[in-house]
């Protein structure tokens, strides 16, 4: 590798790709050329890279020529087709699609947990976990190291940017349609009737003034693909292959930043103050925001308070009565930054 390596970002015009490009000024200057790539729909568009407008290239075999690392912020079907092509062209691929999560020779990497796994992967591909997993795995890993995790019951509250720009626009459109009507949401079917003329939605139900207990597609045993991914990714990252994990993923009317309510049970008896100390002292990107004993002001994280931030924020840390081996906590993390773009960029840096 002569000089600084070349980084290509496939999906550069999507919400994750744009977030990744916006993070570059905050990182060490290790890249030479940074090449934005997208589908033919975005050919000719310009994106800002380190303050310079750069023309987006169309995704093709030639677009990988001379590239050292390819970050793929694209759907699984696109990654499945193009990741092997990029590897064949001589690049290392960092993928966020979930397509390679369970592939044995593709390491699943969170830099705070297993950074060495990103170096010289046998397949040429490194996988990054889903945003739903990334917001909680650092905290779980720290507590697991102390007390040995034996099960987890998880409810995620996921922002509409899970569905990209289309998800955010749909929430804005629905909110505008419903705003100002103080009787809406008080009788069966009224919300659906008011939104009936808005056209197709990326969601299975109205998302404004509502929550939807379904994120992703249908998977096995009544679970969704997102719920299965969280279970499988946590087991792999924590190296507990048969860990009991119960997950419910809920779509909520939040533009950006996922949250999770977590009930974690361990082999040893736990302590609330020890949990706070472990989370605070570990290298896990977790910031504990939990001062409810003294004041309810800023006592715990919420999405509107942590959006745009890189750390993961944890609060409501407690041990519930009747569960001496369990810890409860509430976590928030920006799904487009640490939940996606930052982890991809950190892995890309590790590969070189």
UniProtKB/TrEMBL annotation:
One of its GO terms (biological process) is amino acid biosynthetic process. InterPro entries: NAD(P)-bd_dom_sf, Semialdehyde_DH_NAD-bd, Semialdhyde_DH_dimer_dom. Coiled coil: none annotated. Its EC number is 1.2.1.11. Residues 6-121 form the Semialdehyde dehydrogenase NAD-binding domain. One of its GO terms (molecular function) is aspartate-semialdehyde dehydrogenase activity. Keywords: Oxidoreductase. It is an enzyme of class 1 (oxidoreductase). It comes from the Bacteria. Belongs to the aspartate-semialdehyde dehydrogenase family. This is Aspartate-semialdehyde dehydrogenase. It comes from Flexivirga oryzae.
